[in-house]
Amino acid sequence: MPDLDSVVREIAEEMAQRPDRGAVADYIPELAHVDPNQFGIAVIDADGRVISGGDSETPFSIQSVSKVFTLTLALGMAGDRLWKRVGREPSGNPFNSIVQLERERGVPRNPFINAGAIAVTDVILSGHEPREALGEILRFMQFLAQDPSITIDERVAASEKRTGFRNTALANYMKSFGVIENPVDYTLGVYFHHCAIAMTCRQLATAGRFLAHNGRNPSTGHNVVSAERARRINAIMLTCGHYDGSGEFAYRVGLPGKSGVGGAILAVAPGKASIAVWSPGLDAAGNSHLGRVALERLTQRMGWSVFGA
Ligand code: GLU
Protein backbone atom coordinates (compact mmCIF):
# COMPACT_ATOMS: atom_id res chain seq x y z
CA MET A 1 0.00 0.00 0.00
CA PRO A 2 1.56 3.34 -1.00
CA ASP A 3 2.16 5.88 1.73
CA LEU A 4 -0.76 8.34 1.80
CA ASP A 5 1.41 11.25 2.98
CA SER A 6 3.75 10.98 0.00
CA VAL A 7 0.89 10.47 -2.46
CA VAL A 8 -0.85 13.64 -1.23
CA ARG A 9 2.45 15.58 -1.29
CA GLU A 10 3.20 14.49 -4.85
CA ILE A 11 -0.30 15.36 -6.03
CA ALA A 12 -0.08 18.85 -4.47
CA GLU A 13 3.30 19.41 -6.13
CA GLU A 14 2.08 18.26 -9.53
CA MET A 15 -1.13 20.33 -9.38
CA ALA A 16 0.77 23.49 -8.39
CA GLN A 17 2.75 23.22 -11.64
CA ARG A 18 0.24 22.06 -14.24
CA PRO A 19 -0.52 24.61 -16.94
CA ASP A 20 -4.04 23.27 -17.69
CA ARG A 21 -6.14 24.92 -14.98
CA GLY A 22 -9.62 25.28 -16.50
CA ALA A 23 -11.60 28.54 -16.37
CA VAL A 24 -13.07 30.19 -13.26
CA ALA A 25 -16.87 30.58 -13.13
CA ASP A 26 -17.68 34.12 -14.22
CA TYR A 27 -21.49 34.04 -14.26
CA ILE A 28 -21.25 34.88 -10.53
CA PRO A 29 -19.14 38.08 -10.82
CA GLU A 30 -17.57 37.74 -7.37
CA LEU A 31 -16.18 34.30 -8.28
CA ALA A 32 -14.57 35.65 -11.45
CA HIS A 33 -11.92 37.42 -9.32
CA VAL A 34 -10.58 34.25 -7.71
CA ASP A 35 -6.98 33.41 -8.65
CA PRO A 36 -7.00 30.17 -10.71
CA ASN A 37 -3.43 29.34 -9.67
CA GLN A 38 -4.58 27.78 -6.42
CA PHE A 39 -4.93 24.14 -5.48
CA GLY A 40 -5.66 22.58 -2.11
CA ILE A 41 -6.27 19.07 -0.85
CA ALA A 42 -7.18 17.55 2.54
CA VAL A 43 -7.64 13.84 3.16
CA ILE A 44 -8.92 12.60 6.56
CA ASP A 45 -8.43 8.90 7.13
CA ALA A 46 -10.54 6.59 9.32
CA ASP A 47 -8.38 7.40 12.37
CA GLY A 48 -8.96 11.12 11.96
CA ARG A 49 -5.49 11.88 10.66
CA VAL A 50 -5.51 14.95 8.37
CA ILE A 51 -3.12 14.77 5.42
CA SER A 52 -3.15 18.00 3.47
CA GLY A 53 -1.26 19.84 0.77
CA GLY A 54 -1.23 23.05 -1.26
CA ASP A 55 -3.75 25.75 -0.34
CA SER A 56 -5.67 23.53 2.06
CA GLU A 57 -6.19 26.34 4.59
CA THR A 58 -7.53 28.93 2.11
CA PRO A 59 -11.31 29.47 2.34
CA PHE A 60 -13.35 29.21 -0.87
CA SER A 61 -17.00 29.41 -1.80
CA ILE A 62 -18.40 25.89 -1.38
CA GLN A 63 -21.30 26.61 -3.79
CA SER A 64 -23.05 23.38 -4.80
CA VAL A 65 -21.11 21.21 -2.35
CA SER A 66 -23.54 22.74 0.18
CA LYS A 67 -26.29 20.72 -1.54
CA VAL A 68 -25.02 17.50 0.06
CA PHE A 69 -25.59 19.02 3.48
CA THR A 70 -28.96 20.65 2.70
CA LEU A 71 -30.10 17.28 1.33
CA THR A 72 -29.00 15.64 4.60
CA LEU A 73 -30.89 18.25 6.64
CA ALA A 74 -34.04 18.08 4.50
CA LEU A 75 -34.11 14.27 4.71
CA GLY A 76 -33.89 14.64 8.49
CA MET A 77 -36.91 16.95 8.42
CA ALA A 78 -39.13 15.38 5.77
CA GLY A 79 -37.84 11.78 5.53
CA ASP A 80 -38.92 9.94 2.41
CA ARG A 81 -41.64 12.55 1.73
CA LEU A 82 -38.82 14.62 0.26
CA TRP A 83 -38.87 12.36 -2.80
CA LYS A 84 -42.28 13.70 -3.76
CA ARG A 85 -40.65 17.09 -4.36
CA VAL A 86 -37.49 15.98 -6.10
CA GLY A 87 -36.33 12.85 -7.98
CA ARG A 88 -33.07 10.95 -7.74
CA GLU A 89 -32.09 10.21 -11.32
CA PRO A 90 -29.07 11.72 -13.09
CA SER A 91 -30.13 14.59 -15.31
CA GLY A 92 -27.71 14.34 -18.23
CA ASN A 93 -28.22 18.09 -18.53
CA PRO A 94 -26.26 21.18 -17.44
CA PHE A 95 -26.61 22.21 -13.79
CA ASN A 96 -28.94 25.11 -14.50
CA SER A 97 -30.99 23.60 -17.33
CA ILE A 98 -34.65 24.57 -17.55
CA VAL A 99 -35.88 22.28 -20.39
CA GLN A 100 -36.27 19.10 -18.38
CA LEU A 101 -38.46 20.80 -15.78
CA GLU A 102 -41.24 21.40 -18.26
CA ARG A 103 -41.42 17.78 -19.33
CA GLU A 104 -41.36 16.65 -15.72
CA ARG A 105 -44.04 19.06 -14.52
CA GLY A 106 -41.82 21.11 -12.25
CA VAL A 107 -40.36 18.18 -10.28
CA PRO A 108 -36.56 18.38 -10.66
CA ARG A 109 -34.59 15.27 -11.58
CA ASN A 110 -32.36 15.18 -8.51
CA PRO A 111 -31.38 17.25 -5.45
CA PHE A 112 -28.02 18.35 -6.89
CA ILE A 113 -29.04 20.19 -10.05
CA ASN A 114 -29.95 23.78 -9.23
CA ALA A 115 -33.72 23.28 -9.52
CA GLY A 116 -33.58 20.25 -7.21
CA ALA A 117 -31.42 22.02 -4.65
CA ILE A 118 -33.78 25.02 -4.65
CA ALA A 119 -36.70 22.63 -3.97
CA VAL A 120 -34.70 21.05 -1.11
CA THR A 121 -33.96 24.50 0.37
CA ASP A 122 -37.68 25.25 0.20
CA VAL A 123 -38.38 22.15 2.35
CA ILE A 124 -35.88 23.35 4.97
CA LEU A 125 -37.43 26.83 4.91
CA SER A 126 -41.06 25.74 5.40
CA GLY A 127 -42.34 26.72 8.85
CA HIS A 128 -39.35 29.03 9.46
CA GLU A 129 -38.20 32.55 8.73
CA PRO A 130 -35.42 32.68 6.09
CA ARG A 131 -32.96 33.84 8.76
CA GLU A 132 -33.78 30.87 11.01
CA ALA A 133 -33.49 28.37 8.15
CA LEU A 134 -30.15 29.81 7.09
CA GLY A 135 -28.95 29.78 10.71
CA GLU A 136 -29.89 26.11 10.92
CA ILE A 137 -27.87 25.26 7.78
CA LEU A 138 -24.85 27.27 8.93
CA ARG A 139 -24.91 25.73 12.42
CA PHE A 140 -25.11 22.26 10.84
CA MET A 141 -21.97 23.00 8.81
CA GLN A 142 -20.15 24.38 11.87
CA PHE A 143 -21.16 21.31 13.89
CA LEU A 144 -20.05 18.85 11.19
CA ALA A 145 -16.77 20.68 10.57
CA GLN A 146 -16.30 21.18 14.33
CA ASP A 147 -15.57 24.79 13.69
CA PRO A 148 -17.87 27.63 14.84
CA SER A 149 -15.84 30.18 12.86
CA ILE A 150 -17.32 29.09 9.50
CA THR A 151 -19.31 31.92 7.92
CA ILE A 152 -21.16 33.02 4.82
CA ASP A 153 -19.40 35.26 2.32
CA GLU A 154 -22.04 37.97 2.00
CA ARG A 155 -20.38 39.47 -1.07
CA VAL A 156 -20.68 36.20 -2.98
CA ALA A 157 -24.32 35.79 -1.89
CA ALA A 158 -25.15 39.37 -2.97
CA SER A 159 -23.30 38.91 -6.26
CA GLU A 160 -25.29 35.78 -7.05
CA LYS A 161 -28.56 37.38 -6.03
CA ARG A 162 -27.91 40.29 -8.40
CA THR A 163 -27.22 38.03 -11.37
CA GLY A 164 -29.23 34.88 -10.54
CA PHE A 165 -31.81 35.33 -13.29
CA ARG A 166 -31.76 31.71 -14.31
CA ASN A 167 -32.21 30.37 -10.78
CA THR A 168 -35.05 32.87 -10.35
CA ALA A 169 -36.63 31.48 -13.52
CA LEU A 170 -36.24 27.89 -12.28
CA ALA A 171 -37.81 28.75 -8.91
CA ASN A 172 -40.74 30.64 -10.44
CA TYR A 173 -41.33 27.82 -12.87
CA MET A 174 -41.43 25.26 -10.04
CA LYS A 175 -43.70 27.57 -8.04
CA SER A 176 -46.19 27.50 -10.93
CA PHE A 177 -46.47 23.72 -10.40
CA GLY A 178 -46.77 24.08 -6.61
CA VAL A 179 -43.35 22.48 -6.02
CA ILE A 180 -42.12 25.58 -4.12
CA GLU A 181 -44.22 26.43 -1.01
CA ASN A 182 -42.58 29.63 0.20
CA PRO A 183 -42.24 33.02 -1.49
CA VAL A 184 -39.68 32.54 -4.27
CA ASP A 185 -37.54 35.42 -2.97
CA TYR A 186 -37.27 33.82 0.45
CA THR A 187 -36.32 30.38 -0.89
CA LEU A 188 -33.75 31.86 -3.27
CA GLY A 189 -32.32 34.09 -0.54
CA VAL A 190 -31.60 31.03 1.62
CA TYR A 191 -30.28 29.09 -1.39
CA PHE A 192 -27.86 31.82 -2.52
CA HIS A 193 -26.59 32.21 1.03
CA HIS A 194 -25.94 28.53 1.70
CA CYS A 195 -24.07 28.32 -1.63
CA ALA A 196 -21.93 31.24 -0.38
CA ILE A 197 -20.68 29.47 2.76
CA ALA A 198 -16.88 29.75 2.80
CA MET A 199 -14.76 26.82 3.96
CA THR A 200 -11.26 25.38 3.65
CA CYS A 201 -10.41 21.92 2.33
CA ARG A 202 -9.73 20.74 5.87
CA GLN A 203 -13.09 21.99 7.15
CA LEU A 204 -14.96 20.49 4.22
CA ALA A 205 -13.27 17.10 4.53
CA THR A 206 -14.08 17.11 8.26
CA ALA A 207 -17.73 17.92 7.54
CA GLY A 208 -17.96 15.00 5.09
CA ARG A 209 -16.59 12.35 7.44
CA PHE A 210 -19.99 10.96 8.44
CA LEU A 211 -20.58 9.96 4.81
CA ALA A 212 -17.37 7.91 4.74
CA HIS A 213 -18.21 6.05 7.96
CA ASN A 214 -21.80 4.83 7.86
CA GLY A 215 -23.36 8.07 9.04
CA ARG A 216 -21.08 8.53 12.05
CA ASN A 217 -18.04 10.68 12.69
CA PRO A 218 -15.65 8.10 14.14
CA SER A 219 -13.61 10.71 16.05
CA THR A 220 -16.44 12.54 17.83
CA GLY A 221 -18.80 9.54 17.96
CA HIS A 222 -21.65 11.73 16.65
CA ASN A 223 -24.26 9.79 14.71
CA VAL A 224 -25.30 12.27 12.04
CA VAL A 225 -27.56 9.98 9.99
CA SER A 226 -28.27 6.24 9.86
CA ALA A 227 -25.92 4.00 7.89
CA GLU A 228 -28.69 3.45 5.35
CA ARG A 229 -29.15 7.16 4.79
CA ALA A 230 -25.42 7.76 4.43
CA ARG A 231 -25.24 4.97 1.85
CA ARG A 232 -28.11 6.50 -0.10
CA ILE A 233 -26.69 10.02 -0.05
CA ASN A 234 -23.42 8.56 -1.35
CA ALA A 235 -25.34 6.81 -4.14
CA ILE A 236 -26.87 10.12 -5.24
CA MET A 237 -23.44 11.77 -5.08
CA LEU A 238 -22.03 9.06 -7.31
CA THR A 239 -24.79 9.25 -9.91
CA CYS A 240 -25.64 12.97 -9.82
CA GLY A 241 -22.80 14.81 -8.05
CA HIS A 242 -21.10 16.21 -11.14
CA TYR A 243 -24.05 17.21 -13.31
CA ASP A 244 -23.60 15.90 -16.84
CA GLY A 245 -19.97 15.11 -15.99
CA SER A 246 -21.10 12.47 -13.45
CA GLY A 247 -20.39 9.52 -15.76
CA GLU A 248 -16.90 10.78 -16.53
CA PHE A 249 -16.18 11.36 -12.82
CA ALA A 250 -17.31 7.80 -11.96
CA TYR A 251 -15.19 6.46 -14.82
CA ARG A 252 -12.05 8.34 -13.87
CA VAL A 253 -12.30 8.67 -10.07
CA GLY A 254 -14.83 6.04 -8.98
CA LEU A 255 -15.96 7.69 -5.75
CA PRO A 256 -19.16 9.41 -4.62
CA GLY A 257 -18.41 13.12 -4.98
CA LYS A 258 -20.03 16.53 -5.20
CA SER A 259 -18.61 19.51 -7.02
CA GLY A 260 -19.34 23.22 -6.81
CA VAL A 261 -18.64 26.07 -9.25
CA GLY A 262 -16.29 27.61 -6.67
CA GLY A 263 -13.93 24.76 -7.67
CA ALA A 264 -14.40 22.43 -4.70
CA ILE A 265 -15.09 18.71 -4.77
CA LEU A 266 -15.99 16.67 -1.69
CA ALA A 267 -15.36 12.96 -2.28
CA VAL A 268 -15.98 9.97 -0.07
CA ALA A 269 -13.97 6.73 0.02
CA PRO A 270 -16.33 4.56 2.11
CA GLY A 271 -14.66 3.18 5.23
CA LYS A 272 -11.38 4.83 4.28
CA ALA A 273 -11.40 8.60 3.96
CA SER A 274 -13.19 11.87 3.44
CA ILE A 275 -11.45 14.05 0.85
CA ALA A 276 -11.81 17.70 -0.16
CA VAL A 277 -9.98 19.21 -3.11
CA TRP A 278 -10.20 22.74 -4.43
CA SER A 279 -8.97 24.47 -7.55
CA PRO A 280 -11.08 27.29 -9.00
CA GLY A 281 -10.65 26.52 -12.74
CA LEU A 282 -13.59 24.52 -14.13
CA ASP A 283 -14.07 22.15 -17.07
CA ALA A 284 -16.89 22.47 -19.60
CA ALA A 285 -19.40 20.71 -17.31
CA GLY A 286 -18.69 23.18 -14.46
CA ASN A 287 -16.55 20.83 -12.34
CA SER A 288 -13.07 21.65 -11.00
CA HIS A 289 -10.58 20.51 -13.63
CA LEU A 290 -7.54 19.99 -11.40
CA GLY A 291 -9.76 18.81 -8.55
CA ARG A 292 -10.89 15.93 -10.72
CA VAL A 293 -7.37 15.18 -11.98
CA ALA A 294 -6.07 15.14 -8.38
CA LEU A 295 -8.82 12.77 -7.21
CA GLU A 296 -8.12 10.49 -10.18
CA ARG A 297 -4.46 10.30 -9.14
CA LEU A 298 -5.35 9.71 -5.49
CA THR A 299 -7.84 6.90 -6.08
CA GLN A 300 -5.57 5.19 -8.62
CA ARG A 301 -2.53 5.29 -6.34
CA MET A 302 -4.44 4.24 -3.21
CA GLY A 303 -6.76 1.72 -4.91
CA TRP A 304 -9.77 3.52 -3.42
CA SER A 305 -12.27 3.40 -6.31
CA VAL A 306 -15.54 1.82 -5.18
CA PHE A 307 -15.43 -0.20 -8.41
CA GLY A 308 -12.20 -2.07 -7.56
CA ALA A 309 -8.46 -1.51 -7.36
N1 GLU B 1 -24.87 28.85 -6.58
C1 GLU B 1 -24.59 28.25 -7.84
C2 GLU B 1 -25.78 28.42 -8.78
O1 GLU B 1 -26.89 28.32 -8.32
C3 GLU B 1 -24.28 26.81 -7.64
C4 GLU B 1 -23.89 26.07 -8.89
C5 GLU B 1 -22.78 25.09 -8.63
O2 GLU B 1 -21.99 25.21 -7.72
O3 GLU B 1 -22.68 24.15 -9.42
O4 GLU B 1 -25.62 28.64 -9.95
Automatic annotation (TrEMBL):
<protein>
    <recommendedName>
        <fullName>Glutaminase</fullName>
        <ecNumber>3.5.1.2</ecNumber>
    </recommendedName>
</protein>
<dbReference type="GO" id="GO:0006543">
    <property type="term" value="P:L-glutamine catabolic process"/>
</dbReference>
<comment type="similarity">
    <text>Belongs to the glutaminase family.</text>
</comment>
<dbReference type="InterPro" id="IPR012338">
    <property type="entry name" value="Beta-lactam/transpept-like"/>
</dbReference>
<feature type="binding site">
    <location>
        <position position="243"/>
    </location>
    <ligand>
        <name>substrate</name>
    </ligand>
</feature>
<dbReference type="GO" id="GO:0006537">
    <property type="term" value="P:glutamate biosynthetic process"/>
</dbReference>
<dbReference type="InterPro" id="IPR015868">
    <property type="entry name" value="Glutaminase"/>
</dbReference>
<dbReference type="Pfam" id="PF04960">
    <property type="entry name" value="Glutaminase"/>
</dbReference>
<feature type="binding site">
    <location>
        <position position="191"/>
    </location>
    <ligand>
        <name>substrate</name>
    </ligand>
</feature>
<dbReference type="GO" id="GO:0004359">
    <property type="term" value="F:glutaminase activity"/>
</dbReference>
<keyword id="KW-0007">Acetylation</keyword>
<feature type="binding site">
    <location>
        <position position="114"/>
    </location>
    <ligand>
        <name>substrate</name>
    </ligand>
</feature>
<keyword id="KW-0378">Hydrolase</keyword>
<feature type="binding site">
    <location>
        <position position="261"/>
    </location>
    <ligand>
        <name>substrate</name>
    </ligand>
</feature>
<comment type="subunit">
    <text>Homotetramer.</text>
</comment>
<feature type="binding site">
    <location>
        <position position="64"/>
    </location>
    <ligand>
        <name>substrate</name>
    </ligand>
</feature>
<feature type="binding site">
    <location>
        <position position="167"/>
    </location>
    <ligand>
        <name>substrate</name>
    </ligand>
</feature>
<feature type="binding site">
    <location>
        <position position="160"/>
    </location>
    <ligand>
        <name>substrate</name>
    </ligand>
</feature>
